[in-house]
Amino acid sequence: MTDFAVHSIEDAGESKPLLEKSKKAYGFVPNLHAVMAESPALLEAYRTVAEIFDNKTNLNPTERQIIAMTNNRLNGCTYCMAAHTSIMQGLNVDDDVITSLREGTPIADPKLEALRVYAEKVNLSRGWPDESDIEALLAAGYTKQTVFDVIVGTAYKVLSNYTNHVAQTPLDKAFAKNQWSADAQPAS
């Protein structure tokens, strides 16, 4: 198996300024970013798409996490499931929403559930949701912009989920309490 480095700021080469930004933003360099530092293009793409998703979509923090967590679960990304669980806890998202996302079960709030279902349809259909899927999202109170903002979130998670699959990124201590296993989850 190919061994991928978990780079430090000191040995990150062209990625050094990006890892310095990560440390400033999080107080530490997440292992995901440290692995991505192998490819400055990947780390920059990930950070850029993440910033766009966080700051330019019409979604609130909970809604963005619903999209992220839905993709993390469907893609079987143990690293991102633990990391985003920690993020959601920091945002004070209701425990029942977090549990639903970790288990792939319905969210009690109908509007948030419609978003979860639509994000799931986009992922599982590889970007070919049915017209009825789009109509259900719009009927729940979301907009046509949201239809596309879900795609931004899905692209953001492909970058991180696939990196973690290839590199088998070790889980940071900061996220260890929220460890997750795809094997222990019910099938979709």
List keywords for this structure.
188 residues, mainly alpha
Task: Describe the secondary-structure layout.
Elements: H1 16-26, H2 31-36, H3 40-56, H4 61-74, H5 78-90, H6 95-103, H7 110-124, H8 131-139, H9 144-167
The span between the termini is: 30 Å
Radius of gyration over C-alpha positions, nearest whole angstrom:
16 Å
Count the helices. How many? 9
| Structural class assignment | mainly alpha
From N to C, what is the helix and strand string? HHHHHHHHH
- As a percent range, the share of strand residues is under 5%
Work out the helicity level: 55-70%
Compute the number of strand runs. Answer: 0
Which of globular, elongated, flat, extended, rod-shaped describes the shape? globular
Average residue-wise pLDDT: 95
Contiguous runs where pLDDT drops below 50 for at least 5 residues: none
Largest sheet data: none
Describe the model.
By secondary structure, this protein is an all-alpha fold. It contains 9 helices and no strands. It has helices at about 15-25, 30-35, 40-55, 60-75, 80-90, 95-105, 110-125, 130-140, 145-165. The longest helix is centred in the last third of the chain and has 24 residues, at about 145-165. The protein is globular, with a radius of gyration of 16 Å.
